[in-house]
Design brief:
Helices cover 44% and strands 21% of the residues. It has 221 residues and is α+β, with helices and mostly antiparallel strands. The protein folds into 2 domains: 108 residues, Rossmann fold (3-Layer(aba) Sandwich), CATH 3.40.50; 66 residues, Arc Repressor Mutant, subunit A (Orthogonal Bundle), CATH 1.10.10. Helix 3 links the parallel strand 4 and strand 5. It starts with 6 loop residues before the first helix and ends with a helix.
Length: 221
């Protein structure tokens, strides 16, 4: 498809809102004027791209009312991409339109305006807690795949204690390792390393023993 296929629907949408609309005015794909107010500029693309956002940012030097418009896709992949790009557009102060080509329906997913994100107290607390619990700095920034978390460090401490002493009560593991959540951690058994021997008593599984042997080999190499 071509970007020009989006124009009739966008033009009709803006005209319904009271704008006089013309295409290809200077660098803008679409421009609308209403009662001598702030011009509305729309950049048309066949899909989300970095170039589309670059163009949108450039148009903000002309007007505060800048939208980017793309065809409305289908499926979960498009819905996810739309949500991610709407978040980006909000941060940049841009609006987002989608056009359903089958019937020309134009949807507004966000309007241009200053970005004012809502802070998540829960996520902030989680980050601070992870930072405080993490022992040292075992990862590399930008790491892909498995990373060492504070939870994994606590699980390793519990597993090493059980390897050295044999099955123990959770309270004993907590006292020996300093891991306050030792009992809960071993009971939940997220990694499959721990085996409940009796009431409140835990030992190592074969998976846990194999993991410790592998970790020891890596540390000594």
């Amino acid at each position: 498809m071509q970007e020009t296929e989006l124009y009739p629907a966008v033009k009709a949408f803006l005209e319904a809102a009271g704008y006089t609309v013309k295409a290809e005015i200077g660098p803008a794909d679409v421009m609308g004027l209403r009662d001598g107010g702030e011009p509305v500029l729309v950049e048309l693309k066949t899909g989300f791209s970095l170039a589309l956002f670059h163009q949108g940012i450039a148009r903000l030097a002309i007007s505060d009312l800048v939208y980017v418009a793309v065809p409305r896709g289908q499926g979960r992949r498009f819905v996810k991409a739309l949500a991610e790009n709407v978040r980006l557009a909000r941060r940049l102060g841009l609006g987002v339109l989608t056009v359903r080509l089958s019937d020309g329906l134009v949807e507004v997913h966000c309007d241009p305006g200053p970005y004012a994100p809502r802070k998540s107290a829960h996520r902030r607390r989680a980050l601070l807690a992870e930072f405080e619990r993490r022992r040292g700095d075992p990862n590399l920034g930008g790491l892909r795949g498995t990373r060492v978390t504070a939870y994994r460090q606590d699980a390793l401490a519990c597993a090493r204690h059980l390897l050295a002493t044999g099955p123990c009560r959770g309270a004993q593991v907590k006292a020996a390792t300093g891991v306050d959540r030792a009992t809960t951690l071993m009971r939940d058994n997220h990694y499959g390393w721990f085996d409940r021997i009796g009431a409140g008593v835990y030992g190592l599984t074969e998976t846990g023993r194999a993991m410790l042997e592998e970790a020891t080999c890596k540390e000594s190499s």
